[in-house]
Amino acid sequence: MKLYPSKSVIFFVVLFNFLFISLVSAQSVKGLWYGVGQVSKYGDNNNYLSELKLKQTGKKVTGEFNYFFRRSEIKSKISGTYDAKTRTLFLNTSPVLNFQAKNENGADCPMKGVFTLKVSRIESTLSGQFVASSDYKLTCPDITVKFTKGINEQPLPTDTTPEVEIVTVPPAAPKKQIDPNEKLVAALNSRAFDASPVIDVDADSLKVTLYDNGEVDNDTISLFYNRKLVAAKKMLSDQPLTFMLPVDTTVNEIAMYAENLGKLPPNTALAVIYAGDKRYELGMTSTFIKNATIRFRRKQKTSDPKNIN
Q: Is residue 172 part of a domain?
């Protein structure tokens, strides 16, 4: 007589395998991770557009920590350990460019990393900080980063949908088409805005000319005025992009949205702006996190008391 496992036994075997696979997945930090490092110091500081490439063998972790700083791409080898019980990634001390450095030849900060892994059906993240050694605490503030695992490497959700009877339903009404301009405005508002000062002018219009600031590297932008689209997906070059914009007595905002970061991140432009007889040359820098802005306001005209009857 053959003995067959009961349904309850089969259920618990399947459940055990599912939990085991989930646990193994949760205990791994290998893969590609992306984030933006924010300096833990008051003021407007440069960010670190960062990438982690991690390999894991047991507790041992090796790989690369790559980041863009100003216009420089920095690559460094890293190593460390991963504690599966606490889901904590420890990265050994390695050099990180100081937040006040002018270029890639600036001073380095010896910094170690401590990050916590969180896995959900939506995304996997490594959140934590790079922290300087005790001798460098005064000159090297902490860098806080939330890394998100690359989209193609996110764990797939388990399909637990029960079988259902197929029912024929009438076709749904066609969805309303979304205006492409509305999509761009929504994308603009999803990013932060530079808190630029307001420039008071006597003119009632602005002539705005944009160039790529530095080497022409395929920087592509969309330009907005008072959160309304002026030009979509224009590439910056050494040839001018020129716009005429009205200006009134409220705060008027020119915003530059980065469609890409070009070959040399971040996305930078030189704005030459004429307001009456005044000329302004202003740099604009946009990333996938923040929009560059320039703000103008027309001065209130005051009446001349000599002309009062």
A: no
Is residue 168, in this structure, part of any structural domain at all? no
Round to whole Å and give the CA distance between 63 and 31: 9
- pTM, two decimal places: 0.46
* Dihedral sign from CA coordinates of 20, 118, 133, 265: positive
**How many alpha carbons lie under 13 Å from residue 272 in its C-beta half-sphere?**
11
- The pLDDT profile of the chain, 309 residues, written as one tens digit per residue, is 545 555 554 444 444 454 444 444 456 898 888 888 888 776 666 678 888 999 999 999 999 998 887 667 888 899 999 998 999 999 999 999 888 887 778 888 999 999 999 988 778 899 999 999 888 888 889 999 999 887 555 454 444 444 445 555 666 666 666 677 888 999 999 999 988 999 999 999 999 999 998 888 899 999 999 999 999 999 999 999 999 999 999 999 999 999 998 888 899 999 999 999 999 999 999 999 999 999 999 998 776 555 544
Asked if residue 163 belongs to a domain, the reply is no
Burial of 27 (0-12, 13-18, 19+ CB in 10 A): middle
Q: Which domain holds residue 282?
A: 180-298
Residue ending a domain, choose from 108, 135, 152: 152
